């Protein structure tokens, strides 16, 4: 496996690392997209309807195909940046551990006065895409720790609230990754984990996140102390994304299918089983989370992100794109408001699912057994969302009352 200590300032024109030969694109068939033969939990594997001989259709050429790894990064996140970027590493850790937002702001201002933020800003253009994502995660940690997550770094009003040098760095990173709303759950979770130990062999990214013990790169709890609830919530989201890969594959299967296609109810039944399995997984995560230490500071961070609609996992947004719950509940504008925190290619994929799964959603207005299966899929997604919301509330709340709330 590639380690997380890649060069942070390597230009994009550098010689690319050797990769496995790309697999040819999978042909569209009448049955649901197959699931990997290894690295999948038995419950989720059975839920997806995988047979023992099903082949893995992933290929390196389809780097942004959600069937390959969901919305996880293509490779494990960068564990430690090097060179001048170690300054950003240190600042992110200091901000996350600061006892208050004022202390985090003071740390950022000291870094600005020392010229560190300016030095980093001058090096943004040299970042490789992978290291730009790593820098964005650290910027996201600093922004929420300082209470600046709701700011537009390019707005004039932001200059009265936040350090100018940090805003310049934030804007440059946003331009580098072509995404100005990245301070949200995807950056805080999906780019802030690493396997506790180096795997003995190369594993696909989703399998790595499912099967290995994960640890946060930037911890919200001090080193040497148990992970806090915020740390565990972020890791739970990463594992949810990794286990939800079959949901992305079934979404592609349902795209463009007619409601009366014989394979549509079969795919919907598998979608129901996957969502039930994901809900069971969240309930298991809750047991560990409820026993973890919590502070008012971390609860404030979670509450701030929740208030901005920046906590819904991408995998739940993918299920919504298929079943249309969010569009009915909050209107199209509300759905796009949630998606603004995702990268452009992820938003484009979700919009495509909105369009291509529209025929399947007409089952909501029909009768018969197929319509009943569709409604069951909607109900299972609502239950999954409620379970996730309860998990967030447990992470933000002072009392370990998850079990009573979820009953």
From TrEMBL:
<feature type="compositionally biased region" description="Low complexity">
    <location>
        <begin position="45"/>
        <end position="54"/>
    </location>
</feature>
<feature type="region of interest" description="Disordered">
    <location>
        <begin position="1"/>
        <end position="76"/>
    </location>
</feature>
<feature type="compositionally biased region" description="Basic and acidic residues">
    <location>
        <begin position="55"/>
        <end position="68"/>
    </location>
</feature>
<feature type="compositionally biased region" description="Low complexity">
    <location>
        <begin position="25"/>
        <end position="34"/>
    </location>
</feature>
<protein>
    <submittedName>
        <fullName>Uncharacterized protein</fullName>
    </submittedName>
</protein>
<feature type="compositionally biased region" description="Low complexity">
    <location>
        <begin position="1"/>
        <end position="16"/>
    </location>
</feature>
<dbReference type="InterPro" id="IPR037217">
    <property type="entry name" value="Trp/Indoleamine_2_3_dOase-like"/>
</dbReference>
């Amino acid at each position: 496996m590639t380690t997380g200590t890649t060069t942070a300032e390597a230009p994009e024109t550098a010689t690319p690392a050797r990769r496995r030969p790309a697999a040819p694109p999978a042909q569209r068939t009448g049955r649901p997209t197959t699931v990997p033969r290894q690295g999948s939990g038995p419950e989720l594997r059975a839920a997806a309807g995988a047979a023992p001989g099903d082949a893995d259709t992933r290929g390196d050429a389809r780097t942004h195909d959600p069937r390959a790894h969901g919305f996880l990064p293509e490779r494990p996140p960068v564990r430690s940046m090097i060179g001048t970027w170690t300054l950003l590493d240190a600042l992110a850790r200091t901000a996350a551990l600061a006892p208050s937002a004022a202390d985090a702001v003071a740390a950022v201002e000291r870094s600005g006065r020392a010229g560190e933020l300016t030095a980093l800003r001058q090096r943004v253009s040299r970042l490789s895409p992978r290291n730009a994502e790593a820098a964005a995660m650290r910027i996201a940690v600093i922004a929420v720790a300082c209470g600046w997550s709701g700011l537009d770094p390019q707005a004039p009003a932001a200059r009265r609230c936040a350090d100018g040098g940090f805003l310049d760095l934030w804007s440059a990173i946003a331009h580098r990754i072509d995404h100005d709303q990245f301070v949200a759950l995807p950056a805080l979770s999906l780019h802030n984990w690493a396997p506790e130990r180096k795997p003995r062999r190369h594993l696909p990214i989703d399998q790595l996140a499912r099967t290995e013990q994960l640890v946060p790169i930037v911890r919200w709890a001090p080193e040497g102390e148990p992970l806090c609830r915020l740390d565990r919530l972020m890791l739970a989201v990463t594992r949810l994304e990794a286990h939800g890969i079959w949901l992305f594959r079934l979404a592609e299967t349902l795209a463009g299918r007619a409601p009366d296609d014989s394979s549509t109810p079969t795919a919907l039944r598998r979608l129901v089983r996957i969502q039930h399995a994901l809900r069971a997984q969240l309930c298991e995560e809750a047991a560990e989370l409820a026993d973890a230490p919590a502070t008012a500071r971390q609860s404030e961070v979670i509450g701030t992100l929740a208030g901005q609609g920046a906590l819904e996992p991408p995998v739940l947004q993918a299920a919504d794109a298929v079943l249309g719950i969010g569009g009915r509940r909050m209107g199209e504008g509300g759905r796009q408001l949630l998606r603004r925190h995702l990268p452009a290619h992820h938003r484009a994929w979700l919009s495509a699912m909105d369009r291509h799964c529209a025929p399947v959603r007409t089952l909501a207005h029909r009768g018969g057994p197929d319509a009943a299966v569709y409604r069951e899929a909607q109900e299972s997604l609502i239950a999954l969302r409620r379970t996730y919301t309860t998990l967030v509330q447990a992470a933000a709340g002072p009392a370990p009352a998850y079990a009573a709330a979820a009953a």
